[in-house]
């Protein structure tokens, strides 16, 4: 079970990298297709490792991938020369997902071109795959994961909170504070960051052992940061 879990986590990390979404940015949902479903003990570990709100098992991830088909001229030309243009047009009009399902189940894609029955095997086709917009898919053997990369304003704000906490923790270390030292946090020069710090004041204070947060001024050890492309000046003092 842990081996299967590790495979899912590795694929999830690869999908995050493909989507260029940092691990501290929470993601809403990840879909997993695997040989067997895991119970909540394991899905909770996956969700924690990948910073995903929900892990769902899906029988099929094909709906997140779109397929398009073109004739392989080398094989289709000799077989169906005169019908080639008709075949090319018919392939562009197919529902890619349904056509791929038919090809996998029967080994053939069957078309009617001007009353002529045309049967195309996989080697007769050039198949292109594309990710559905807003989703990233990674596959290894029987295991596939799909990340929903559509970030809601709430998820984006939560990502900012995790980044702010990380920066303050870094400043605690750089300032030479002890692990259990209580601190005073300051921020200035970015209204968006300060609004987020105000909205999540209790969470941030709890995570970084702060007794107070003061906005629009700085004191103590001061440093400028770029947090998700937002420049802000933070300060920390020991209480």
Give a structural overview.
This protein has 239 residues and is an alpha+beta fold. The protein has three domains: 2-62 and 132-149; 66-130, 2-Layer Sandwich (Signal recognition particle alu RNA binding heterodimer, srp9/1); 154-238. Helix content is 40%, strand content 32%. The chain is built from eight helices and twelve strands. The strands form four sheets. A four-stranded mixed beta sheet has the order 2-1-8-7, covered by helices on one side. A four-stranded mixed beta sheet has the order 10-9-12-11, with helices on one face. Strands 3-6 form a two-stranded antiparallel sheet. Helix 1 (2-19) packs parallel to helix 2.
Name its key features.
239 residues, alpha+beta, Signal recognition particle alu RNA binding heterodimer, srp9/1, 3 domains, 4-stranded mixed β-sheet, 8 helices, 12 strands, 40% helix
Q: What fraction of residues sit in β-strands?
A: 25-35%
The number of distinct β-strands equals 12
User: What general form does the structure show?
Assistant: elongated
How would you spell out the order of helices and strands?
HEHEEHHHEEEEEHEHHEEE
Unreliable spans are none
Distance between the termini: 47 Å
Q: Biggest sheet: strands, sense, closure? A: 4 strands, mixed
Total number of domains: 3
Number of helices: 8
Gyration radius, rounded? 26 Å
Q: State mean pLDDT (0 to 100 scale).
A: 91
The helix content is 40-55%
Q: Tell me the structural class.
A: alpha+beta
Strand order across the largest sheet: 2-1-8-7
């Amino acid at each position: 079970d842990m081996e299967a879990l590790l495979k899912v986590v590795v694929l999830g990390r690869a999908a995050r990298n493909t989507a260029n979404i940092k691990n501290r940015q929470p993601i809403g949902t990840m879909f997993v297709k695997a040989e067997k479903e895991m119970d909540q003990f394991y899905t909770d570990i996956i969700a924690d490792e990948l910073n995903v709100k929900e892990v769902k098992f899906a029988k099929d991830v094909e709906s997140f991938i779109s397929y398009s088909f073109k004739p392989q001229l080398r094989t289709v030309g000799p077989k169906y020369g005169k019908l080639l243009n008709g075949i090319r047009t018919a392939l562009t009009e197919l529902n890619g997902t349904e056509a791929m399902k038919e090809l996998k189940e029967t080994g053939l894609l069957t078309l009617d071109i001007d009353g002529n029955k045309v049967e195309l095997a996989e080697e007769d086709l050039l198949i292109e795959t594309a990710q559905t917009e807003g989703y990233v898919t990674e596959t290894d053997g029987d295991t596939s994961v799909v990340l929903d990369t559509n970030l809601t304003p709430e998820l984006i704000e939560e990502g900012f909170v995790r980044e702010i906490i990380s920066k303050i923790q870094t400043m605690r270390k750089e300032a030479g504070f002890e692990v259990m030292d209580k601190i005073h946090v300051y921020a200035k020069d970015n209204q968006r960051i300060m609004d987020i710090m105000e909205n999540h004041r209790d969470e941030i204070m709890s995570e970084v052992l702060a007794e107070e947060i003061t906005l629009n001024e700085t004191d103590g050890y001061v440093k400028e940061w770029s947090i998700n492309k937002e420049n802000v000046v933070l300060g920390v003092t020991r209480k």
